[in-house]
Amino acid sequence: MLLKDKTVIVTGGNSGIGAAIALAAGREGANVVIDYVVHPEATEELDDEITRAGSEAIGVDADVSKVADLRRLIEVAVAQYGRIDVLVNSAGIETRTSLLDTSEQDYDTVMAVNLKSAFFASQLAARQFIAQGGGGVIINISSVHEDWPMPGNTPYCVSKGGMRMLTRNAAVELGAHGIRMLNVAPGAVDTPINTSTTTDPDKLKALNASIPLGRVAKPEEVAETVVFLASDKAAYVTATTVVVDGGIMQGSVGL
Ligand SMILES: NC(=O)c1ccc[n+]([C@@H]2O[C@H](COP(=O)([O-])OP(=O)(O)OC[C@H]3O[C@@H](n4cnc5c(N)ncnc54)[C@H](O)[C@@H]3O)[C@@H](O)[C@H]2O)c1
To answer: Does residue 248 lie in a domain region?
Structure first.
């Protein structure tokens, strides 16, 4: 088992990619801390599924845009399992607004949930890793849009671009402590954030046609990459982005 007895925190952990990561980590032997803000019943179902897979899980209701909530999330994880080993920052939102259309509120909300959260969750996790000793791993779920413009979704792209530099800078600072920090950049994945595209047959057909592998990803396909990167099998991988996009950035005619 790749994550036997490790404690893994997943933000935005009861839905989409975060839920797939939580389950995959549990199947690899991890104790899983599922951060969530809505749908407690989904957290309970996931907790049960992880328990059936032979691991332990707890849900923590914490809003990642608030540093006090992030602090409580880490404190609960340490109180429950004694230490933390992996933080996955997966919580994210988008407003699908252009530069011209974006309100101050849109901008602040997207930046707080996507980028400020990753910054301070990583800071708090890194302080805990250093205090307990033995290193640790931080994985941010960014996006191909950390590099690739998406007209009409500008605050989202700005937040993911910020994650790109957060990871490179912080990983350099934290390397001496044995802490690895990485981004995983999915392309198009079949999750609730994408429902407006995946439930429209014409849009889905056009999207699939723009992807060299011919289809959007399943959340589990992102999760398996995250589990590998979180494990000691990837002990020399840090300060970079691993793209999981079916080739979309190389072969696309645009969305
Ligand atoms: N689905 C895709 O195509 C795709 C592609 C690239 C990157 N991503 C990224 O993957 C991550 C997960 O998205 P997803 O596709 O699984 O969608 P999703 O909507 O299923 O998951 C997002 C999660 O974030 C949670 N969340 C929102 N605001 C929060 C807050 N303030 N505090 C705590 N949690 C909060 C939501 O409740 C939800 O569980 C996001 O960061 C997204 O940007 C998704």
So the answer is: no
Catalytic residue among 36, 81, 107, 156: 156
CATH label of the domain that carries residue 121: 3.40.50.720
- Tell whether 171 is covered by a domain: yes
Residue 160 CA: nearest ligand 1 atom is: 43
- 253: confidence class by pLDDT, cuts 50, 70, 90: low
Q: What local confidence, expressed as pLDDT, does residue 131 receive?
A: 98
Query: Is residue 252 assigned to a domain?
Result: no
DSSP-assigned states of every residue in 130-163: HHH-S-EEEEEE--GGGTS--TT-HHHHHHHHHH
Choose one of 158, 191, 222 to mutate for the ligand 1 pocket test, by most ligand atoms within 8 angstroms of C-beta: 191
Q: Residue 199 belongs to what domain range? A: 7-242
Q: What is this structure's pTM?
A: 0.97
CA distance 54 to 27: 7
H or E element in which residue 211 lies:
none
